[in-house]
From TrEMBL:
It holds the Pfam family BCCT. It is a multi-pass membrane protein. Belongs to the BCCT transporter (TC 2.A.15) family. One of its GO terms (molecular function) is transmembrane transporter activity. This is Glycine/betaine ABC transporter permease. Signal peptide: none annotated. It comes from Flavivirga rizhaonensis. The chain crosses the membrane at residues 18-37, 57-78. InterPro entries: BCCT_transptr. Keywords: Cell membrane, Membrane, Transmembrane, Transmembrane helix, Transport. It is found in: Cell membrane. GO terms for cellular component: plasma membrane.
Length: 93
């Protein structure tokens, strides 16, 4: 069945290429840290004499709000479906 084939393929891929995934993610994070702390990270986006439109606290608030919003949108539909699909054992509520 498709489920068995998919599970076998997933097990093969994770067993064979798990190290590669960790390596690629680690290199990507290292590259991002390099960009942040190198002189490239000091480049301003916009005109040299412009002030930023939003402060640091505003940026953190916007990122937090976006994260909470996508969580509510996604899990608002996905969580009830997962509870319905994986019901509790008989006799338990």
């Amino acid at each position: 069945s498709l489920q068995n084939v998919s599970q076998s393929a997933q097990a093969f891929i994770t067993d064979s290429f798990g190290w590669y995934y960790l390596l690629v993610v680690s290199l990507f994070v290292g590259f991002c840290l390099f960009l942040i702390f190198s002189p490239i990270g000091k480049i301003k986006l916009g005109k040299p004499d412009e002030k930023p439109e939003f402060g640091l606290l505003s940026w953190f608030a916007m990122l937090f709000s976006a994260g909470m919003g996508i969580g509510l949108v996604f899990y608002g539909a996905a969580e009830p479906i997962s509870h319905y699909a994986i019901s509790s054992p008989s006799g338990e509520t």
